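Re: that chain you flagged

S.,

Sorry for the slow reply, it's been a week of failed gels. I finally had a moment to sit down with the sequence you sent. For the record, here it is as I used it:
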Amino acid sequence: MNLITTVITIALVLASVLAIISFWLPLMNPDQEKLSPYECGFDPLGSARLPFSMRFFLVAILFLLFDLEIALLLPLPWGDQLPDPTLTFSWAALVILLLTIGLIYEWMQGGLEWAE
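Prediction finished late last night. Pasting the structure tokens below so you have them in one place:
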């Protein structure tokens, strides 16, 4: 048995054991306090099932998009050690340009305004 098969076997066994333990271990005895939307000791003032604003999701998606952009561009300083660094920098500039155009479009459409 080679090393890769051993590692995959150990990972599958460990994942299966942890999944089985997490399925049977927790105590599932819901009472009235657990079923209520708030568990901090006071009665809720309104409904806890109000829908979120779509603007909240838009800002969250924009945050994730720009966060991923930074994660993708982190190895860029090491790109100057490649045989053709101009190709790497041109692709990075294209990504930044597309994201900037998208941000400007969203801004001009008023998608980033909280108050209407």
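What I noticed first: The helical segments are 3-24, 32-35, 54-73, 85-109.

Talk soon,
D.
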